[in-house]
């Protein structure tokens, strides 16, 4: 069989570290690369890491006229941000989990709602060609779900354009009569997260930010009232340092940060481009799809007419592209029996790491840590990165520019190690996802 997708060593898939070329998102033409830091510089703020969080922070600091240097170990978007599934989800799954935030919860939710279109807004404002499309989202279920009805009522009250839909509307949206209940969010959609992250960085550079690639930070030390951030070939002296390194894996400066989250490898894949006629069958409205309640096989149709989806691999089997693509195809065949005779080929398969602040999916919210005096970390974005990364980068930039951290919508916390960080992975890969696959196959929920 012809294989068009790239392969790598199993250990690289397991570590979420296959090269970014494996991801389905980088375009054919090469984007700008950023050279390494080769001297000693100064700045108001040093940002470490150029994923969705660091790129947005850099852009919004530059927009506010702050002097900012961003140091990225590889190139922008080479971490989780260039490897995700492209869903732009503009609502939150569970607000109850925010109760412990007290007064901050309502401020955070109001901010999230106000800026829910940030992906589309930033693309428009900065001319970012991120293949962002506001095609809406559907959470589709096999049978009525009281929790979905409550969710629709709650978010409608917030001003969202969302409705409970049943079989006829779902057939029009999704082209299948297998689903009988769901929510149609006429907001959100999809984005190419790699292009979007690159686009934010390019916009920041146009506004005066200095961005260096291939510049892993190896040390961060106090020098008077400032911090010296070092790479192998240079350094930056700054009043403020913001660490945006996701799970902080492998970093020896402030190593306590790598114990603040539950890491989990996720795999994603894209089909070869499909004919428009076939897409009109499997997703006529081109909405971003999620299956409720299992959350399995979230998928989007991207600008290259490919289906892009993600899942969690079996323990030790993250490299097994054929198995997960097979699951996805069988899921499609169950929903669209007419696709059984159509050739749908795998075009790209890759993995990436998520870093979650909670082992309970709905309670997993990003964190802003005060690591030391003048050193912050904005990280542990879990599976919320496409909207929350840009939002929180913007909020933190606003707070830093006004020299008032209380203006950031995230509470400022001290890094705390989580208990049994590997337990989450064991639970998810051994139990929850395999059980969800059985539930889906038998249409039990
Ligand atoms: C398979 C998969 C599917 C997903 N699907 C979705 C989805 O559909 N929708 C959604 O909203 N979210 C999704 N997510 C989650 C989302 O991708 C993440 O929440 C988001 O990318 C995190 O962004 P970040 O900027 O915090 O981290 P990253 O993008 O990982 O960026 C961190 C950066 O820090 C750099 N770095 C690390 N150490 C150093 C150092 N010492 N010096 C300099 N730089 C350093 C890394 O190279 C990296 O570029 C998914 C994630 C995965 C893995």
TrEMBL record:
Q: Which InterPro entries match?
A: FAD-dep_OxRdtase (IPR006076), FAD/NAD-bd_sf (IPR036188)
What Gene Ontology terms describe where this protein resides (cellular component)? cytoplasm
Where does the FAD dependent oxidoreductase domain start and stop, copy by copy? 44-398
What UniProt keywords are attached to this protein's entry?
Oxidoreductase
Whether Oxidoreductase counts among this entry's keywords is yes
The protein's GO terms of the molecular function aspect are: oxidoreductase activity
Which Pfam families did the record assign?
DAO
Q: What name does the UniProt record give this protein? A: FAD-binding oxidoreductase
Organism field: Pandoraea terrae
